[in-house]
Amino acid sequence: MNDSQPIETATTSIQMSSGAPDAKTRRYDRQLRLWAASGQAALESARILVIPATATTTSILKNLVLPGLGHFTLMDDKVVTGADAGNNFFLDGFKSIGKFRAQEVVNGLMEMNDGVEGVADVRNIREALEIDKGWLKTFDIVVAHNVDSVILDDLAALLWPDTHLVVVNSAGFLADFSIHYREHQVIESHVETSPSLRIDQAFPALLEYAMSLPLDTMDITDHAHIPYPVILVRALEEWRREREQVSGPSSGKGVPRTTAERKVFKERIRAMMRKFDEENFEEAEAQAFKCWTPTVIPSEVRELFNLHPSSASSSTTFSGLVSGLSQFSQNNPASPQYPSGLLPLTPSLPDMKSSTEEYVKLQKLFRAQSEKEKQVFKEYLSRAQVDVNDATIDQFLKNSHAIKVLKGREWKEINPGAKELLAGKLSTHTKEAATHLALAAIRKLRAKSVISSLEYVSSPNDTAMTDILDKDKLKDLLTAEAKSFLPPAVELPEAEWLVASGEVARAPSADLPTTAAFLGGLVAQEVIKMITKQYIPISAGNAASSTNDQLGICVVDLVETWTGIL
Amino acid sequence: MSTAVGRTKHAEAILGSELHTRLSFTKVLVVGAGGIGCELLKTLVLTGFTQITLLDLDTIDLSNLNRQFLFRTKDVKKPKSITAARAASSFNPNVKISPIFGNIKDEEYDIDWFKGFGVVLNALDNLDARRHVNRMCMAAEVPLVESGTAGYLGQVQPLVKDATECFDCIPKPTPKSFPVCTIRSTPSQPIHCIVWSKSYLMGQLFGRDEDAGETSELDEAENNGENVEEIANLRKEAQSFSRVRAAIRSYTPNSTSTADQDNDPAKLAFQKIFSSDIQNLLNMGDMWKHREPPVPLDYNQIISGTFILDRQGSNKAKEESNRVNGASSLNGTGNKKTAEKVVMKDQRKLTLKENLVLFNTSVQSLSMRLSTSQVQTIEFDKDDEDTLDFVTAASNLRSAAYGIEGKSKWEVKEMAGNIIPAIATTNAIIAGLIVLQALNLLRASPSTRPSSSEPVNATTAAPSSSSTVASPASADYSLLRNVHIQLKPSVPLSSVTCSSPNPNCGVCRDVYTLVRCDRTQTTLRDVVQGVLGWTSGQSQNREGAIENGQSQNGNRNENENGSNDDDDDGSERKEISVYEDKRILVDPDWDDNLDRTLDSLNVGRGKFISIVDEEGDWETVQVVIGELPASHPSTASPYILPSPLPKLVKRKKIKPLVPSVPSTPPPRLSLKRSLPTDADDGDVMIIDGHNGNGRTRDGDGEGQRALKKPRLGAYDNQRDAKTTTPTMDLTSPGKRKRLEEDGLVLMDGPGEVDEFEEDVIVIDDD
Predict the structure, then answer these.
(1) B543 C-beta neighbours (distance < 10 Å), count
(2) Contact residues, chain A, for B755 at CB < 8 Å
(3) Is CATH 1.10.10.520 the right assignment for the domain spanning B189-417?
(4) Residue B511 is inside which H or E element, if any?
């Protein structure tokens, strides 16, 4: 699958060959404007497995079925109870009671979008783990909600690393979730940082143009329309030449560094004005920091070069592109003065005060240079025999300053997490860590069958639940479990633990519709980010960086309404 | 109840039985049955709310189905409210959902109606309606949960009069605006041409007759110092639409005679707009001294494929014209019949000829609709293919004439229709958050039923509030949160405690009161002086007229701090102005309207009469005009004053007020719209949930920041939105309002045209 394509071709490609946009495009109009057809195509070819059919997983599925997920299988061996019927919108009310939960939910979900394939599987996940290992691995993503610890461990070990696992836990108003993948590449990260204009390392044509303008004699109207990058390049070059005369040729590439130097530099720009109100010069003064903000390769991108070194043969298109970029950053003949340390120039310019004419002139300079550098980049690709189409290259270069390669963690690393790490988290992220520990503890208890009697599935009356285990006793059990996750000397934070364990003990597995709705949105959103490879999902950090103690767990507290990343 | 055993077990276990029981006694109003509304309705029903009124004015469109999950393909074109109510009711027969297919701004949805609800939940997509509901809730003192989404971003904000700020406490970012002349004669960007087609040309050709010669906008531009000669020309241009309008309204298709072809509305319109009007503009030589002049388009040459845009001396223009004209040779092959059938692909940029053909077909279909049906006017609607085609074609033709890059229909739809990307996930999150905040509101507010002595169960999880029993005396709003969903992967949710009301807010700081009356019998004087306690002889139960401002009613002398500040004694007869919305009815030097009846002043049911203290000492009094109760004896006074009379509240002077200049902008409005200054910086920081580093900013920076994290409304999403001062001159409120609704505000002067700022929300960076 292509990582991406430009919106124009992308959005046309899924249309009928003629006439008004087809029903599908119209149906998905509002989301295509967010992730374009490339994202939509990825979504439509994705296959996911969801376990089991709770209110929360149903909400997650609802939000994937609506935008047009390809296929889902919902696995659950239980039958619908009255509590389910009142809690899950996609059951057919009382009529569903006594029937298989998975089948009833699938029926309800499928009504929303006939473009989606949905299958109910009424086996227990344990059974599938024993006899259907290969089949489980055919999914792109598996989502598990409030599944006990032992099953999760087995499932996670089986799926790692090819099928992504999403683990969701909730109790009352508290929840956490995590996504497990080894590495996730995002080209279209949709971040808001814009690529550098390279004011400090102007390309030859730009420098030449900036120096060629007869500033003192040109038409006054034209003078007021010189775009600010041109003004900055000119001012900086003049500043450099003056310095060179004073301090010798070696100083030719410097920039104003001290506060005093910068102040003088801004005054120099101001002095270039021929009328007091030339807004383009005012803008240049305001943007003067671009002169002394060095154009560098963002550290995250630099780190990627270690992950995909240019010498290594490239196994995938993505690593081929990254190693091409790495080579480019070492040698870019299209920029003879500054041959290394740059990413390919992007042709797009920000808005600026200028006339259309001047703006287009500048745009042409940037386009021409960016085209040259693209050729250099393509040359590196072809030498490494990376087979990739032009649209992908354009998309990659456009986003090269913001490409992300994320690191995930394996499930066993965070269930519940290394003792020392957790102890550290308890002091730095007390509330998040307490919530995580409480949810991990209940998962363990669930595996020990201590709380199975609390699940609202046993009988229609459920009178037994409070008798068997009262809240306080459950709290004590939770505390004991949580302590076993920590180094011996470490105490649980009293207030935060009271809150977290209290909430979990109060509602160990009650699925509140508001929490389910919230989680349904949040988790589905992250799943869509993973599938479309657009935007940045939660992660444990940058894949190339070794120093990171993030667990990559998103903690949700709807009592006080906050989320945090552990 | 016939509920199956265990049905509400989950919710009861978590909410506690006291709160859960209260849910079924709480009447909820949901305004909007769209993306958020569908999710909200589901979550409300599941949580245990059973009395829900659902209002929406819209019908279902195919593009709703990717997120509005209560609707199916078979429901397209049906009312959203009714369809959603039916779908959600089937879930639980014990729930009563009353759908209303109507506009929340209609007069029947008045203060009394709002007072009938325990909580109001906004699920709206446009700023205008959101502000309306906010005002009604502030007036009716009903708690409101506000919300909005745009793509992956969303926001939820609980609003309670006097306890938290209201929706209007923080001025909303003003939508992108352009000087009149930029739109009407010197466009330089595609958006200028799109705005021109949609907001100006659409109205001139297919709008109401009285708009055709409408000049107030131009008067205003002239007052603002825009080019006089240019405006005179525009005036002439606007008045000469009559022939085209007539042709449109008498259009008959299928006529083949040459006479009829001469009367082809499309061709007539084209000749006028793209040929003679542009020719006229070119005659104003001064204008084009420093600008690239436009090129008049030639209808026949474009059709025959021989038209060449000749723009000497400009590389850029040549490049552009090549692009626009580039494919015209492709069309040269087809005969006229097939050329009429342009194959539309939304995302492809059209050639000049294709645009012309699209212009023709769209003008013809729109003309058909006007000439053959009862429809009098057609307004732009992004989902109305004909109007979208028209705006696409007209703006691209204009762009071609001015050497501006063309836009595809897909792009025009987004730019003209203020389309906001929308997905199920964000709406689901927001709906969950809305209900959470509604639960927090219920927990905080006094119970309407005798409450048990047990603390509400769910709060036990929060140590800060676990001991707080919601008692009628002390409502505890500490759990309310103003929540944003953001794109930061590290902090998906930003949640901050709610701020106090902005002391300068022109909505929630006002004093609201209700006068029930027979509008044909009640004069403005009856209402104003009655409410203020300035009773004159003929009025009811006050003791005598108060000539020297000394009230005899103890209540009138109270002010909030109980201070002895004589100057600000609220009972004094102050110089006042009276407004109905933005319309001035009375000012200190002009009180002719006082003795006219409300009816004759066209002040209808549910309207607000604003009594503004010219000196700015009191908060404005908003008098809501209600209906007399059916039982009111016909012989009694034609109006019922509130009892007790509203307490005048001394305005807290936090910072200097905008000086009130007689006759120019109404003080009430200027107060409402005043931009927060540095003094308010802290407040704004909290609202935005940004890092509170409290940098000093000037007014402009403030607005810019507000734009960075805008309230999410229909037109907050303008791609190139930039800051303008929200203090508007409202000399032409009608026009202005209409344009505002279009997401456009005409600027006060030309000075701001060249300001560029960053996009508000990056939807995608194609």
Answers:
(1) 9
(2) 353
(3) yes
(4) strand B511-517
Quick check: A518 and B429 CB within 8 A?
Answer: yes
Backbone angles phi, psi at B227, to 5 degrees: -50, 120
Q: Which of residues 285-344 of A touch B (CB under 8 A)?
A: none
Contacts of B356 (CB under 8 A, 6+ apart): B270, B299, B302, B303, B393, B397
**What pLDDT sits at residue A311?**
61
From the list B543, B551, B514, B506, the residue with the least C-alpha distance to B531 is B514
Q: Where in chain B is the domain with CATH 1.10.10.520?
A: 189-417
* Alpha helices, DSSP H, located in A407-458: 411-414, 419-428, 430-447
The 10 Å Cβ neighbour count of residue B471 is 11
First to last CA, chain A: 32
Q: How far is CA A566 from CA A430, A437, B708, in A?
A: 10, 11, 27
Tokens representing residue A254 in the block: 């410097």
CB proximity list for A273: less than 8 A, separation 6 or greater: A281
Which residues of chain B does CATH 3.40.50.720 include? 5-151+422-485
CATH 3.10.290.20 positions along chain B are 511-640
Verify whether the Cβ–Cβ distance B766 to A8 is below 8 Å.
Answer: yes
Which chain A residue has its CA at the smallest distance from B318's CA? A357
> Which residue spans within A146-281 are E strands per DSSP?
164-171, 174-180, 183-186
B-chain residues near A59 (CB < 8 A): 428
Whether B432 and A30 lie within 8 Å, measured CB to CB: no
Residue A525 to residue B426, Cβ atoms within 8 A: yes
By CB atoms closer than 10 A (0-12, 13-18, 19+), residue A463 is exposed
User: A269-284, pLDDT tens digit by residue?
Assistant: 999 999 888 889 999 9
Give per-residue pLDDT as tens, A86-136. Answer: 888 899 888 899 999 999 999 999 999 989 999 999 999 999 999 999 999
Residues B216-234 as b/e (b if ≥16 CB within 10 A, e otherwise) read: ebbebbbebebbeebbebb
Q: Does A98 touch chain B (CB under 8 A)?
A: no
* pTM: predicted TM-score of the whole model, two decimal places: 0.74
Q: Which residue did the predictor score with more confidence, B421 or B69?
A: B69
B292, B319, B492 member nearest A522 (Cβ): B492
- What beta strand segments (E) does B131-265 contain? 144-150, 153-159, 177-178
Q: Give one DSSP letter per residue of B381-445, joined into a string.
A: -TT-HHHHHHHHHHHHHHHHHTT-----HHHHHHHHTT-----HHHHHHHHHHHHHHHHHHHHHS
Chain B CB contacts of A112 under 8 Å are 65, 69, 72
As its CATH architecture, domain B5-151+422-485 has 3-Layer(aba) Sandwich (3.40)
| Of A27, A221, A515, Cβ closest to residue B290 | A221
Q: Is the CB of A561 less than 8 angstroms away from the CB of B495?
A: yes
Q: Which two tokens stand for residue B90?
A: 């089937």
Quickly name the fold that domain B511-640 has.
3.10.290
B59: which DSSP letter? B
What six digits make up the tokens of A277? 């109100």
Q: A191: which 2 tokens? A: 């971040």
Distance from CA of A25 to the nearest CA of B (A): 8
**Both structure tokens of A379:** 């040359």
Instruction: Give the residue numbers of B marked as catalytic.
Output: 181
Residues of chain B with C-beta less than 8 angstroms from the C-beta of A23 = 62
Q: Per-residue pLDDT tens for A152-209?
A: 999 999 999 999 999 999 998 999 999 999 989 898 888 878 888 999 999 999 999 9
Q: In whole angstroms, what is the distance from residue A201 CA to residue A233 CA?
A: 9
pLDDT value of position A200: 92
Choose among A21, A83, A514: nearest Cβ to B346: A21
CA–CA separation, A252 vs A249, rounded Å? 6
Closest CA to A321 of A406, A369, A402, A385: A385
